[in-house]
Amino acid sequence: MRYSEGWGLTAERRAFREGIRLQAGERFAASGKTAVIAKDLRVSVRSVERWRRAWREGGLEALRSAGPPNSPTVTDAQFAVIEEELGKGPSAHGFEDERWTLARVQTVIRLRLGLSLSMATVWRLLKRHSWSWQAPARRALERDEHAVELWKREVWPRVKGSRRPTGAGSSSRTRPASP
Hints:
By secondary structure, the protein is mainly alpha-helical. It has seven helices and no strands. It has helices at about 10-30, 35-40, 45-60, 75-90, 100-115, 120-130, 145-160. α1 (about 10-30) crosses α3, α2 (about 35-40) packs across α3 and α4 packs across α5 (about 100-115). It is elongated. It starts with 10 loop residues before the first helix and ends in a 19-residue tail after the last helix.
C-alpha cells in the first residue's frame, strides 16, 4: 500500500525525506534556482517551491520532520467516560430515538471530551474497544413466531406459485404467444 492510502512512513524514510529538504534549504541560502534544485534532488518543482516558502518563513527548522502524524489519541480513562455516556443512551443526550450513529457518538465525544475526531477515527476507536455495529430488529412486539412459521410452511408455497408459465410461450416481449 502506498503512503497516500493511509500507511505512514518508517522512521528511516522520514529521515531520508528530511535530509532532502535540508539539502534544499542549504541551496536556498546559496540562492539556487528552483528548477535546478528540483532536478538535482529528483523531486517536483512544486515541492521545492513549497519548501522554499516554508524556509523563508521559518528557516531550516521549518524543513525538519514533524514526526509521524497521529490522530488525537483517546486514553483508557477518556474512553471509560465515553462508554459511560454511551451507556446512558442517545435520548439522554437529546437525540430523538434510541440509535447510536457514528455522527452521534462523534458529537458526544466532542461535547464531553472536547476532542474533534473524524468519523473514521470514531469507528476505529469503537472497534478497538470491541463495540460492534448493531442493527435494530424491526419486529412487532406482538409477533407470534409460531404463526409466522406455520404461514411459511403452509400458505407461502401456495401463494408463491411456479416461476414458469404452464402454457406456450413467446420469445418476444411485445407479441403474445402464438396459438
